[in-house]
Amino acid sequence: MVPSHQLETALWLESDRMGYMLDLLDEKSLANQRDVVRNERRQRYDNVPYGRERFAVAEALYPEGHPYRYLTIGRHEDLEAAGVADVQGFFRKWYVPSNATLTIAGDFEPEQAKALVQKWFGTFPTLPQPAHQQIGTPALTQTVRRELDDPFARLYRIHYAWHSPPRLGGGDIELEVLADVLGSSGWGRLYKALVLEDKSAQSVSAYQGGAGHSGTFHVIVDLKPGQDPVKAELTIRRELEKILREPVSDAELKRVVVGTESSFVWGLEDVMGRVERLQYFNHYARDPGYANTYLQRLRAVTPQRVREVANQWLVKPHAEILTKPAAPAAGPPEGTGPKGPGASAKAEGTGVKKPAEAGDAAGKKKPAADAAGTDAAAKKKPAAADKPADAAGAEKPAPKKPADKPADAAAAKEG
Amino acid sequence: MKTTITLSLLALSAAVAACKPKTATQEPVEQPSTAPVATAPSDTEAAPPPANWPDEPYRATRPTAGQVAELKLPQVETFKLDNGLEVYLVRNDKLPTVYMNFEFDFGAVSDPKTQVGLHSICLDLLDEGTKNLDKVAWEEKQADHAVSVSAGAGSDTSNLNVRSLKRELPAALDLLAEMLREPGMREADFERLKDRRKASIAQAKGNPGSIAGRVIGPLLWGADHPYGRIETDKTIDAVQLKDCAKVVGKLKPGGARLWVVGQISQDEIKQELASRLPEWKGKAPAKVNVAAAKPRLGSVFFVHVKDAPQSSVYVGHAGPKRNATDYEATDLMAEILGGSFSSRINMNLREDKGYTYGGRAGFGYRRAGSTFAASSQVRTDATGPSLREIAKEIATMRTTDAKPDELFRVQEGALLALPAEFDTPTSTLMAFRQLKFFGLPLDWYDGYQKRLRAVDIAAVRKAAEKHLRAKDFVVLVVGDANKVLGDLDAIATEKLFGAGGVVVLDADAQPTKRPTE
């Protein structure tokens, strides 16, 4: 985002990056950024609850060689191994005008903006468009079930994930409807069953996470301390079976449609929301004006059709990743118990690293696979509008949150 | 040619790694068995040769930007309702939406010491339903109209929020009125909300980042300070349903503020509210005076998290109030030190040393005052060195002048950020709301550009000398005792941050035994 009088500055910078960035790439600058990305990985995956789980889900869903098997953040050992030549090769292949789309929104005269784009990008060479391989939706031959120990988790997490259609591919909207019917806070079926009736769940979410090649449908439930995961899984299965058996109600469907329409409207307020919407539809549907088609498709969904799509995708083998929490640190560490820091009381099974444990920085056993940016992008509906800040808004450290800036700079790659 | 390079590299190196085929050992049991799919590009695929990018000399020079327009803020309309509610309206006729935020001057600062969480729990309970609509019916009704009616308490204020498309506003306000007139306040919802908070606290004690966020408050503000108290199972258990009736009873219009943005006029607001809430009268509580921060200076506080690959580190102390006359100079000084990407702390810890993904410093303004903190999540083995670098940067900021290019950058940055801060009617409304929250006049932004431009190097230095401490800081480190305590002992012995030594705490900020070797 730049003030409107600085539009040309932004085009100058971006064109400079596209054409001339490699001139300044060397071992030293790469080495520093390698550290930075590894620190990012530590901060966002290795040092937080449920970070391991993200790798495990992707690893369960995608086979070796599939690009979605590896989260965009990368594995420590691969980051270490990436050399200047790798970066150059990647950059030269992908970061070319024929593979890029520029979307501009804001306060300017279109003709003037076009002339500026021509000035800064128009003389760039026409390079071959890199081949985008077509990868169909993978199919699991059997359900993959895995339990993980997570030293930072304190709540048991049940995460089911199915392969599903790609973004804006056929069936995706029906699965979005289904996700809302299952997971909406307050009225969603799983929310009602697990949070309100059983009172066993801390949170429930369900979403259709589309990506370019194929998508994933997720159901995630965090349990309150001391709750029985077996019982919760039975409830989840009961609700899923019902979804497969009976159409959703007209009222449920209508709620999702009106909610999505409303979020489209809210999403129009800020410039970033508009530019992202155009880019999103252009990228996934090859049509920046796809919003109207999208809404038409949404309004045409029927309860029967939702059931059919559910029976097409959610009956297939899938991934079931269970995160077992570690026990809270017991009082003053050590003293009476076994010697050595961290030998304090912990839940059975935690601490001892099994060979299959994912996400271990040093581990060279199992590839700590990663779910290809799909998860970060996943929850983002095309029209998601941010709620205006409320209560705490005025009380947060006043105007700026500088720490966000480094993170934001890098966030682009996560989706 | 320039400095944007490193940012994009960051994205690239990760992407490169993600594209490489993996050769690690297979774990047959837990490998997904799948039908064959296309594989990723192989290592041997030749990278394209360097392309012929044009050598155009004009690219070496930054284009000359047009003139920055003087800031002209959208108007805020202010008026008062008969029941004493002050209304602030920013109209937006471009979109058929309405957002309303009722703001009351009470919140967690009014929680009794033994019932930390009281106001927040009770306001959360308020939007769980009404007498006639249980939780599910209440949520369904909102979803049927795609509206949101909610309540919540912050530390100094409590809020009611209504968010709706214009055409659904009557339905939304019906729900608001029903919620205020006949709130549900059910025991079952109350117990569920309390359990939920306890579970959140349990999870918050699980990793360094969230533990640090929990513990830093009592250290910087003081454990008994209204901003420094922390919620525990015990304080939650002490809250009773009957207490909530009293809290909710404080939501009166007299002296409270209503912030509105959207496709709506003064008259419509008056009519829509008066027709639904004719009996809503009475005075809201006056704002509570909160004392200055009483930070626990001079010690290195430490919380142990086994096997943490990074430590969360904070170095801080108390700061000035938001309405201090040198606010702009203080702000620009903090921006140079740790506010922006190109700040000294970030450039040092991240770009030069590679200790972290990001480091920052700044003043966190609350209604009653501020605290200063430099913070980062740093690689475990870089914990001690990071603290030393932070100490150095703070001292340098105090004892030497900022460079002209540093000042220029943050000054221009603040000026050029203004259009984005007022990008939408909603952000405009929020900016005004914040002024009012801090007791600043609504015309505070008049002359703000001039005040920013007037800050010179001497003013930055003066602000640093006045608002950054020369000695005795609050230091908090959350990380793996095995790997960082040695460094912390050395730092404490040197009295780098004061003479208080290393103090080991638990995740509730209570003193605990030192983890043994």
Automatic annotation (TrEMBL), chain B:
Q: Which Gene3D superfamilies match?
A: Metalloenzyme, LuxS/M16 peptidase-like
Quote the Pfam families the UniProt record gives.
Answer: Peptidase_M16, Peptidase_M16_C
Please name the InterPro entries in this protein's record.
Metalloenz_LuxS/M16, MPP/UQCRC_Complex, Pept_M16_N, Peptidase_M16_C
> Which residues does UniProt assign to the signal peptide?
1-17
Record region (Disordered): 23-60
GO molecular function annotation: metal ion binding
- The record places domain Peptidase M16 N-terminal at 90-205
Q: Which UniProt keywords apply?
A: Signal
| Feature: compositional bias, Polar residues | 23-36
Q: Where is the Peptidase M16 C-terminal domain?
A: 253-411
Put simply, this protein is called Pitrilysin family protein
Provide the species name. Answer: Nannocystis pusilla
